[in-house]
Amino acid sequence: MPELPEVEVVRRGLADHVVGRRIASAVFHGARVARRHVPGPLHLAEQVAGLDVTEARRRGKYLWLVLGDEGRPVHGLIAHLGMSGQLLVEASDAPDEKHLHARFTFADAGPELRFVDQRTFGGFALDDLGDDGVPHQIRHIAPDPFEPVYDQRAVVRRIKASDSAIKRMLLHQGVVSGIGNIYADEALWRARVHGERVASSLTKPTIARVLDHAREVMEAALAQGGTSFDALYVNVNGASGYFDRSLHAYGQEGAPCDRCGTPIRREHFMNRSSFSCPRCQPRPRGSRTTTAR
């Protein structure tokens, strides 16, 4: 699933190519792409037609377009990218993609916006906006490290109070949003902390250091267009990111640690894989984490 840097790259593309334009029409192919919009795809298409795209916003991994009428914000169109969703800006005469699920045309007759999703986990939902401009559906999502309202001291206190593994807390979108498996592993590698360390056993400065590294690594990934391991993550112009070439831990099983030379290990964690250095990030005693085979 795309994490904060990848979603931010898409958001910036939408800000450049879609914001300031009026939606002439929208077509959603099938009910699945609008399953989060209870009234259905036809109702969703009717509701967005004729509205202006005034802003492209993001919180963590969540993306939405602010739709307005005569300059007044009316709705938030939440775009869930899922595992493989792509928002692409295409010429109207470009051939349809194989897994095209939604199309937005605009009153200026310029390039259209398409939603392509191979695995069909993504989709759209229309929601009212809160006073802070965040759709009600995602108000349970905590601010991410790049938001002005992000309070790292409060996040540190909440993590410190938990007896869960530190990596589990980094992945908890209700605690701090935007960090997924890739950037959690990278932040923990930089901080020399094993992901199975119990959060309450860590000092507040150590937790703050992990969070600082998470922000730094996501900032670095953003500068390189995000992380692309396959063709499923691209920006609005169809280009891939290149941060996978700069990863120190995630996906590096067997490769020498860039710090000490010890081969990176892969372990099972929460139905996924974790990557770490056995020497720089010693596993805590009593941990049930098992090496992946």
Amount of beta strand: 15-25%
- Label the overall shape: elongated
Q: What distance lies between the first and last C-alpha atoms, to the nearest angstrom?
A: 23 Å
Total domain modules: 2
The CATH class of the largest domain turns out to be Alpha Beta
Query: Structural class given helices, strands, pairing?
Result: alpha+beta
Set out the fold topology.
Elements: H1 4-17, E1 23-28, H2 41-48, E2 52-59, E3 62-69, E4 72-80, E5 85-90, E6 100-106, E7 112-117, E8 123-127, H3 152-160, H4 166-171, H5 181-191, H6 204-223, E9 265-269, E10 272-276
Antiparallel strand pairs: 1-6, 2-3, 3-4, 4-8, 5-7, 6-7, 9-10
Structural write-up:
- With 293 residues, the chain is α+β, with helices and mostly antiparallel strands.
- The chain has two domains: 4-138, MutM-like, N-terminal (N-terminal domain of MutM-like DNA repair proteins, Alpha-Beta Barrel), CATH 3.20.190.10; 152-276, Orthogonal Bundle (Helicase, Ruva Protein, domain 3).
- The chain is built from six helices and ten strands; from the N terminus they run H-E-H-E-E-E-E-E-E-E-H-H-H-H-E-E.
- The strands form three sheets. It has a four-stranded antiparallel sheet.
Label this structure with key terms.
single chain; 293 residues; N-terminal domain of MutM-like DNA repair proteins; Helicase, Ruva Protein, domain 3; four-stranded antiparallel beta sheet
